[in-house]
Amino acid sequence: MAQYEEVLQGKGQKFLIRNAVGNDASKMIQYMTTVNRESTFLAMEPGEFIKNFPLEKETALLQGWVDSQEHLSLLVLTEDGEIAGSCNCSYSTEKIRYRHRASLGISVRQDFQRQGIARRLMEIQEEWCRSQGIEKLCLEVDTLNTKAIGLYLGRGFVVEGTLRREAKMTDGTYRDLYVMGKQL
Ligand SMILES: CC(C)(COP(=O)(O)OP(=O)(O)OC[C@H]1O[C@@H](n2cnc3c(N)ncnc32)[C@H](O)[C@@H]1OP(=O)(O)O)[C@@H](O)C(=O)NCCC(=O)NCCS
């Protein structure tokens, strides 16, 4: 995808939003480890990200996305160069019948939340989707995740269904997920 870069004014500080590149891998591993520790609403347990995506693999993945038409991987960086948030969106051209839909995942580190970061990331991704001819944006969200559900409903997503007991936590409890979609 073409390079993306913009400055976002937060509350009391500026953030840089740009594409993730291969060199961000080590910071990304650190960031994902932090957000997976902070929230039970993401797909991985704390410490699981680095097992699935060790440095070399994560570097190749991020760099591959830079060169791919079908991914937009955005990072939000603080003035100190720390990752404050991340948002990935992708579609596949493999199956003609699903070429019109894309999926999205998003997170913002706890100490940078409530500054409009997620809202802006979603706006950029939706614009990018439209530029790619995508007509529908899809995501899944824990039914207990009121913050994220508020974000998505506020952007015109609707709940299309519920996946029962879709996630099993390490304490043996289950979580239901909403499937949400937005017609672009
Ligand atoms: C959900 C999340 C991405 C929101 O990020 P954020 O940058 O704080 O969100 P924004 O400041 O852009 O707020 C956008 C909207 O989200 C909702 N929202 C965000 N934080 C909220 C909170 N604490 N309480 C209620 N609603 C909230 C609101 O609708 C808000 O709009 P408003 O400011 O007009 O009220 C963030 O809380 C997060 O990363 N949580 C942990 C990981 C996660 O749940 N990811 C989503 C998985 S599906």
Can you describe what's shown?
There is one protein chain. The model has no long low-confidence stretch (mean pLDDT 96). This protein has one domain (5-135): Gcn5-related N-acetyltransferase (GNAT) (Aminopeptidase, 3-Layer(aba) Sandwich), CATH 3.40.630.30. With 184 residues, it is α+β, with helices and mostly antiparallel strands. The protein has helices at residues 25-38, 48-52, 55-66, 117-131, 146-154, and strands at residues 5-9, 14-19, 71-77, 83-91, 101-108, 136-142, 158-168, 174-183. Helices cover 30% and strands 34% of the residues. It has 5 helices and 8 strands. Bound molecules: coenzyme A. Coenzyme A is lined by residues 39, 41-42, 106-108, 113-119, 141, 145, 147-148, 150-151, 154.
How are the SSEs ordered, and which strands pair?
Elements lengths: L4 E5 L4 E6 L5 H14 L9 H5 L2 H12 L4 E7 L5 E9 L9 E8 L8 H15 L4 E7 L3 H9 L3 E11 L5 E10 L1
Parallel strand pairs: 5-6
Antiparallel strand pairs: 1-2, 2-3, 3-4, 4-5, 6-8, 7-8
Bound molecules: coenzyme A (COA).
Task: Describe what is shown at a glance.
The protein is built from five helices and eight strands. The chain is an alpha+beta fold and 184 residues long.
Bound molecules: coenzyme A
Give me the CATH superfamily: Gcn5-related N-acetyltransferase (GNAT)
Q: Can you tell me the number of structural domains?
A: 1
Counting DSSP H or I runs of 4 or more residues, the number of helices is 5
Query: Major sheet: size, sense and barrel closure?
Result: 8 strands, mixed
Rounded Rg = 16 Å
